[in-house]
Give the backbone structure.
Amino acid sequence: LIGSIGSGTTSTMIALAASTCACSTPDELHLYVVDARGDDGLAALATVAHCGGVVRLTEDERLHRLLARVAHAIDRRMGLGGVADTEPDIVVMIDGYGSLRSSLGSIERQATFELLQRVVRDGPPAGIGLVIADEGSTASTMVPIAHRWLFHLDDPGVARSIGLRTPPAGPGTPGRLRILATGLEAQVAQGAARLAALPASD
């Protein structure tokens, strides 16, 4: 999900989380969220039984533990040659990928940075779902993601760098997006209301 702050990427992430959780039980799906933008809306996901945690950028220890848990799941799945029937699906959502990478640039956080790289690189081949939202930094455009949804961008240069002459939506249309692979446009509805209908965490 590539778009400037206010373009609807976070709301779309919440909508995707709500829709995904509505299709599975908490035993069938584990959701993990990294909030690197500080959006209060993502905190609502922590109330859903499927969600193992919403971790903020400043929570060093929790962030490391979350990424280590996912990396362990990757190792286990690769060792088994795929996802076992008894294993839950895992979805990792990262809001503000470029900010997250930048915050992990110090020597002290190198181990966490390497875990992040591992999750992004090896997660999808191991059957782990990955949703990334960012403002179009070089880091996010280089991630090997299957589907790119482009929202409003304050910087037209970002749109040009990924093959578009103009951004797909103006600043007054949050949630308006273009699917980069097909050129189709869509409007995402607010997903927060759907969270109330999902099983709550204990």
